[in-house]
Amino acid sequence: MSSHKRALIIGINKYLCYSSKYCVNDANDLSMTLQRIGFETHIAFDCNLREFGDHINQFLQLIQPNDVVLFYFAGHGKYNRYEYYLLPSDYIYNLRTDQYDYIIRNAINNLMKKIHKTI
User: Most CB atoms closer than 10 Å: which of 14, 72, 73, 115?
Assistant: First the structure.
């Protein structure tokens, strides 16, 4: 059975609060490097929560059992109750709800578990 080297690379500079300068550049650099060593790269920039989920789901459709899979995220993250969350571009905590509940609904954690189950 043949295998492929596949990478999902996401870089986010443009946040509603606290934007970054170099995350998209880092994602681009890694994508070019991985392509030189035979990876098929899928790259996305400045994703909101829906777009982030869409990219993950599209990537999951490509993964085969013997594939080498790499996921790279350059952007903001948050640690909450013993778990790490990746923040999409539209994440902004509104202080009106419990932060734990808000982050579960508005950040990337459970979606990453889908990739782990697929491999």
Answer: 73
Q: What is the mean pLDDT of residues 9-25?
A: 93
- The answer for residues whose C-beta is within 8 angstroms of residue 34's C-beta and 6 or more apart is 5, 7, 9, 41, 70
As a whole number of angstroms, the distance between CA 83 and CA 92 comes to: 18
Query: pTM of the prediction?
Result: 0.86
42 phi-psi bin (left φ>0, alpha ψ -120 to 50, beta other): beta
pLDDT score, position 105: 74
Ranges 51-60, 64-73, 108-117: which has the least confidence: 108-117
Residue length of the chain: 119
E-state strands within the chain:
5-11, 40-45, 68-74, 77-80, 83-86
Are 13 and 20 in contact by the 8 Å Cβ rule? The answer is: yes
